[in-house]
Amino acid sequence: MAAGLELAGDPTQPLVVRHVEPRSPAxxxxxxxxxxxxxxxxxxxxxxxxxxxxxxxxxxxxxxRLSLELRRAGVSRTVTITPITPxxxxxxxxxxx
Length: 97
What we know:
Blueprint: E1 2-3, E2 15-19, H1 25-28, E3 36-40, E4 43-44, H2 45-51, E5 66-72, E6 75-84, E7 93-95
Antiparallel strand pairs: 1-2, 2-3, 3-4, 3-5, 5-6, 6-7
């Protein structure tokens, strides 16, 4: 899963899911391109963007639980996933635990 990383530190811009690997556990959990990330592990999206802190979405975070509050079409929901590193890429996929 990739979140919108072109925000250039502007916390007024929404943090949006850009990509979800087909058949990945994130996809199985219903995470979709275009979902707005409201918070990640209890930190607001605005705080994450302002701090340029997307470490939870890197391959180094593989195996650590990630709680995402997402909003789509005005409806919020929280999913808990565990990123795993794919065999052929450096960005993590997300696995349900």
